Amino acid sequence: MEFNSTQAIYLQIADHLCDRIQLGQLAPEEKVPSVRELAVTLEVNPNTVMRSYEHLQQQEVIYTKRGMGYFVGPDAVKKITAMRREQFLQEELPAFFRRMYLLGIELDELKGRFEKFRQKQPKH
Amino acid sequence: MEFNSTQAIYLQIADHLCDRIQLGQLAPEEKVPSVRELAVTLEVNPNTVMRSYEHLQQQEVIYTKRGMGYFVGPDAVKKITAMRREQFLQEELPAFFRRMYLLGIELDELKGRFEKFRQKQPKH
Amino acid sequence: MEFNSTQAIYLQIADHLCDRIQLGQLAPEEKVPSVRELAVTLEVNPNTVMRSYEHLQQQEVIYTKRGMGYFVGPDAVKKITAMRREQFLQEELPAFFRRMYLLGIELDELKGRFEKFRQKQPKH
Amino acid sequence: MEFNSTQAIYLQIADHLCDRIQLGQLAPEEKVPSVRELAVTLEVNPNTVMRSYEHLQQQEVIYTKRGMGYFVGPDAVKKITAMRREQFLQEELPAFFRRMYLLGIELDELKGRFEKFRQKQPKH
DNA sequence: GTGGTCTAGACCACC
DNA sequence: GTGGTCTAGACCACA
To answer: Do residue D101 and residue C121 have CB atoms under 8 angstroms apart?
Structure first.
């Protein structure tokens, strides 16, 4: 996984985990990788992974069982979708429209690109 | 002007100036507000405005005449548009599509919103 | 390190670091001193060192790993040499020749001095 | 005349006047252009030219006759040459050698360039 | 008046 | 520990 430099790594990791949950790759009540394991996989400091998990736990997306690790919360999908939908409509969409407006891009121009994008997505 | 806390203030100022240039509110070769003046207007430290200007100068959007102030560069609009277009297509658009995909939103659903957005924009 | 007053301190620091990289005292991918550390060594404000590093980063001579420090870029030597060679041929050399011409100095007169200079340079 | 941005304009003007004196284009006791006249010619602020003249007067390269203007001092050539020679040997030459050393350039490589440079100089 | 540099000190996020 | 941002205030050079 590659990280961009504009956003904190721990947030990018958390985001990626949310993606996987939303896509059903991580099911509710399923155990998520251990902090150490994921740290090795992603080649980052364990502290950084820990922060991601704490962040997700605080949003009740995952929860911890002592000595057993972190697990996907029962309503994780619903919670993530709700948060992201809110975020999308309130912040991302207006910013996106503004950019399009300043660049003189029409919504119709994006149709072809969106189709192409969707075809590249793996089935799940 | 209000600043959000996720992005550095000096970048938000720079971005806002780019907006104004792109909208034609600041014409090429026109003088931009002096560092001190803008600092008072925005209620920030002059150093912070200075950083914005240095950042824009480095992108050749504005240039400086000694003892006279900063001025909008001749190709400022072209440069800004090129940079933003690149950024939009390479980064913002894919991220946006991904969000839509994960939220199950179709492009057509956005049409109405986009029209409404556009009508709110001031003429220039 | 002593600073002359005609050039900004942060540029002199940047220049000095380039010297050290070009001489191989700082190898590619090696960590450069932390901002605070170098500030103490040089007896300047951390902000001033920071500016040097930002300046070098922008030229892709060094790069930053978050929370870990600044590191010499992989092509640092090549980049520095290219920039300096350009600067030398386009600006320094003509200015130098002009001075010699106006002072009536011949190139041959400098030979002895150059030899003497070179012998004083430390090996590396 | 074009000004580079690294050195103060008034110093570049003063330097240029010294060049002309050294080349004999301005003879001892000859009147130098009036502040206003030179300001128009160079398209700079009269204050800037004034500063150049004050700077040169302080070095006894030119002197002023009230109501008549500035004139080249009797020993101007000698003074300029002495100052420049000193400056050249103490500062420019070591810096120049250092640059050559770091760039791996030999003195002999410059011979051809120097000849070419000299042939382009106008006779005087 | 203008930009530009520097210091001192604070606070934050990240690893 | 690391970089990064911001404020406050000073001083200088330049036009």
So the answer is: yes
Round the average pLDDT of chain B to a whole number and report it.
92
**How is residue D63 annotated by DSSP?**
E
The model's pTM is: 0.82
Best CA proximity match to D42, nearest among D67, D6, D17, D69: D17
Six-digit token pair at A76? Answer: 């994780």
Q: Name the residue facing B88 among A22, A23, A99 (closest C-beta).
A: A99
Q: Do the beta carbons of residue A42 and residue A49 sit within 8 Å?
A: yes
Chain B nearest-CA distance from A49, in A, is 21
Q: CA nearest C69: which of C36, C101, C41? A: C36
Please check whether residue D107 touches C, CB under 8 A. yes
Report helix angle D46-58 to D9-22, nearest 10. 60
**Average pLDDT across chain C, whole number:** 92
Find chains touching chain D: ≥3 CB pairs under 8 Å: C
Rounded to whole angstroms, the Cα distance separating A12 from A1 reads: 10
- For chain D, which residues score pLDDT lower than 70? 123-124
- Cβ contacts, strand E, under 7 angstroms: A 7-11, 44-45, 47-48, 51; B 34-37, 47, 50, 53-54, 57, 64, 66-70; C 8-11, 44-48, 51, 66-68
Q: Do C118 and D96 touch (CB under 8 A)?
A: no
For domain D1-124, give its CATH number from 3.50.50.60, 1.10.1760.20, 1.10.10.10, 1.10.3720.10: 1.10.10.10
Domain boundary assignment for chain B: 1-124
Please give the angle made by the CA atoms of A64, A36 and A57, to the nearest 5 degrees.
Answer: 25
> Class assignment of domain C9-76?
mainly alpha
3 state DSSP class of D7 = coil
3 state DSSP class of C23: coil
Q: What is the pLDDT of residues A45-58, one digit of tens each?
A: 888 899 899 999 98
SS3 content of chain B, % helix, strand, coil (to 5): 60, 5, 30
pLDDT at B122: 74
Q: What angle do CA A90, A95, A96 make, to 5 degrees?
A: 110
